[in-house]
Amino acid sequence: MVTNKEVTDASFDAEVLKSAKPVVVEFWADWSGPCTRLAPVLEQLAVEYADKIDVVKVNVDKNPETAAAFRISSIPSVFLFKDGERRISVIGVGAKRYFEVEFAEYLR
Q: What's this protein's family per the entry (predicted)?
């Protein structure tokens, strides 16, 4: 099983905003049941679309600056960034197909 890369307050800019590929970012916490349920879905996307997107995680408890910068008030929050800009926002848990539809433009 793939473990999506952890991104921190210190590495967010370089790993996400300056990435050449679109990056799916999950804002999560280890105590959140919904985040636990979403993890395998995002891992499947990371494996299946590795040539199109990167998938990373930001622990909101360990990285409060990044969480505050994006006004994270609900977790899981999943954002897709491209060219340094947030293009898509999804709050909550969804099936793999749901995310494939939401991110379709970036998965082709």
A: Belongs to the thioredoxin family.
